[in-house]
Amino acid sequence: DIQMTQSPSTLSASVGDRVTITCRASQSVSGWLAWYQQNPGKAPKLVIYAASSLESGVPSRFSGSGSGTEFTLTISSLQADDFATYYCQQYNSYPLTFGGGTKVEIK
Amino acid sequence: EVQLVESGGGLVQPGGSLRLSCAASGFTFSRYYMSWVRQAPGKGLEWVANTKPDGGEKNYVGSVKGRFTISRDNVENSLYLQMNSLRAEDTAVYYCARVRDVVGNTPTGGHWGQGTLVTVSS
Question: Are residues B1 and B111 in contact, defined by beta-carbon separation less than 8 angstroms?
Fold first, then answer.
């Protein structure tokens, strides 16, 4: 199984900060990597797919990059709506696997 | 508008069974891979199983193989998860999810339901 490791597990930041979350795969997933945002008590929401493609309706302050085993999600200027937990997921091979999550909290 | 509505969750004793349902609307259900994804209380997301559009191919995470069965009814536009031999560690919110796209390699969670809680406890 492919292990997905996110860092950090928690990130404290302020509105307006630039934030970067890293996701590492235990083996190559090519570019088949997605990022999801989840607010407490809600279903996840797709933010980035194919490592760097922005999902429709998602603000352009979100961006993704990477390929192979190392990926990043960047929020260029953190807004109040962005305080949430973010998960990466590889969909290159079965079983599909998620990272452990990164909680972005208010500093 | 894509809608996915799960039902069937509840409290069940260890070793018991439960069947979850997901009613889909707002899209051509028979064209999309569908998945179940779960989230234990306070924990992260775990993909459980998926099924090909025609129901012919099914994939599972190792921890549920032989205990859970995913199925679909493309006439009723519904997805199911039959869960047998339930364990305490199966306690979670179970989400129904539709892939983003009809074709190609596409992320699991293009659209999600609101989830249904399964609690396994005596």
Answer: no
- Cis peptide, bond prior to residue A40, ω within 30 of zero: no
Across the interface, whether the CB atoms of A95 and B62 are under 8 A apart is answered: yes
**Rounded to an integer, what distance in angstroms lies between the CA atom of residue B32 and that of residue B12?**
31
Residues in contact with A24: Cβ distance below 8 Å, sequence separation at least 6, in sequence order: A4, A5, A6, A7, A69, A70, A71
Residue of chain A whose alpha carbon sits nearest to that of B96: A43
Residue B103 has pLDDT above 90, yes or no: no
Q: pLDDT tens digit string along B38-60? A: 999 999 999 999 999 999 999 99
Give the whole-angstrom CA distance, residue A27 versus residue B50: 22
Token pair of B64 as six digits: 């549920």
Please tell me what DSSP assigns to residue A84: S
